[in-house]
Amino acid sequence: MARALALAAEAAAAGEVPVGAVVTDAAGNVIGEGRNLRETSGDPTAHAEVVALRAAAASLGSWNLSGHTLVVTLEPCVMCAGAALQSHVSRVVFGAWDEKAGAAGSVHDVLRDRRLPVRAEVVGGLRAAEAAALLQAFFVTRR
Questions:
Q1: Report field, pTM of the whole predicted structure over 0.85
Q2: How far apart, in whole angstroms, are the C-alpha atoms of residue 139 and residue 129?
């Protein structure tokens, strides 16, 4: 989570919503990382999780990230939860809860939906205060 928080701070410095993400292998080694790049790239899908999942898949040479963990500073949205499931990550760990658009247990629970063929373990609230503080500080300057 420390690296994801650092990436979130980089995103904020670049004028992006401060969300950072990393994908780790079973040993905890980072194999992909990303931060929000929507403003920079003009790409609506350039959320930190999607950027990190793409980087991890590229480093492995495979889309299948079974056995890997996605660590992100903010609870994934529906799109990112779907991307995590499509990549078959085994676990999603996140910091701050997203009470407006979260899809890992707050508003929706896409990652553990029994109707879907793939599910992921979810661990929420890791270093939540730090992740939330980055977001709050960013949005104070925007409102």
A1: yes
A2: 15
